[in-house]
Design a protein that fits this description.
about 30% helix, Quinone Oxidoreductase, Chain A, domain 1, six-stranded parallel β-sheet
Length: about 325
């Protein structure tokens, strides 16, 4: 089926820091019934990979990290009739994507249309689909809304800002540096706050004291309190990640005291559980990219052997846009 018997991959044999990411060779994964094997052209690096490597999300050991990427189909298993060898496809949930070849369910890959590159597709499957469901479902942004997006120059932040603007929102973002502020402004942010001191006070000043209709917080522990304080009466707090650490338990009565707020903690899998939903979100994203309405910033690409560097930079918030590994 495929001539090579092994392919390069990154493997985690013990829980720990970036140093546990080891370049190795694994047997070429063969597709079973209902599966495809794909040559990985680019693999996305995401915080969930760090959580799994460090033990925040327990994983069986050893394991090959990564779940996101794009490439070309090398082989198909029995019963697969809507994906063919040679098709360009992308995915957000094929475990073991830090490798030259990955295999997994055919119903979790989506076709890449003409006009969208493999690297662009790999860069939006997790963060772009996340931004899509955040803006359409976790809190459905309407024309005239004002929303706050933390880490506005990050992978999700840049995409979410653009999608929110497409939906008619005024977007306020937070970033850590002036250089990141420029990127966030270019993505369409109306106001960019540099630094995380007195965020709620500055947001209230920018909204006539009312606060925002919704805040999108993927930072977590370090920003949770200012996020909650930035939301207007009967507004929504969307906590979708914990880049700074997980939010500790809190008193739900705070939501009542703060103005009958709504809080939600979504996760991607629940918004693409059905194939039709996955295809629809991906089609929107790819269409916006093709038409020039959505710009994908690929902040860094690394060879597979440099996965440790990619994890260190992402965890240290030294990245903007998407980080990719190129097997």
């Amino acid at each position: 089926m495929m001539s090579a018997t092994t392919v390069p991959a990154i493997e985690v044999n013990e829980i720990g820091g970036p140093e546990v990411l080891e370049l190795t060779e694994i047997d070429v994964p063969e597709p079973g019934p209902g599966q495809v094997a794909v040559g990985v052209g680019a693999a996305g690096v995401n915080f969930i990979d760090i959580y799994q490597r460090s033990g925040v999300y327990p994983m069986a050991l050893p394991h090959v990290p990564g779940s996101e990427g794009a490439g070309s189909v090398l082989a198909v298993g029995a019963g697969v009739d809507d994906v063919a060898v040679g098709d360009r496809v992308a995915w957000e949930s094929l475990p073991g994507s830090y490798a030259a070849v990955v295999a997994g369910p055919a119903d979790r890959v989506v076709p890449i249309p003409d006009g969208v590159s493999v690297q662009q597709a790999a860069a939006v499957m997790l963060q772009g689909v996340t931004a899509h469901y955040l803006a359409h479902d976790s809190y459905r942004i309407s024309d005239g809304d004002t929303v706050l997006v933390h880490a506005g120059a990050g992978g999700v932040g840049l995409l979410l800002t653009q999608i929110a603007v497409l939906r008619g929102a005024r977007v306020i973002t937070t970033v850590s540096t002036a250089a990141k502020a420029e990127l966030s402004t270019a993505a369409g942010a109306a106001e960019v706050l540099i630094g995380y001191d007195d965020v709620d006070g500055r947001v209230r000043d920018l909204t006539g004291g009312a606060g925002v209709h919704a805040v999108y917080d993927g930072v977590g522990k370090d920003t949770f309190d200012v996020s909650l304080a930035s939301v207007r009466r009967r507004g929504t707090m969307v906590l979708f990640g914990g880049a700074s650490g997980q939010v500790p338990p809190f008193d739900l009565q705070r939501l009542a005291r703060s103005g009958s707020l709504t809080i939600t903690r979504p996760t991607l899998a629940h918004f693409v559980a059905e194939r039709a939903e996955l295809l629809g979100r991906a089609a929107d994203l790819f269409g916006w990219i093709r038409d020039g309405d959505l710009t994908v910033r690929i902040g860094a690409t690394h060879p597979l052997a440099d996965a440790r560097i990619a994890h260190e930079d992402l965890a240290g918030r030294r990245t903007t846009g998407k980080v990719l590994l190129i097997p």
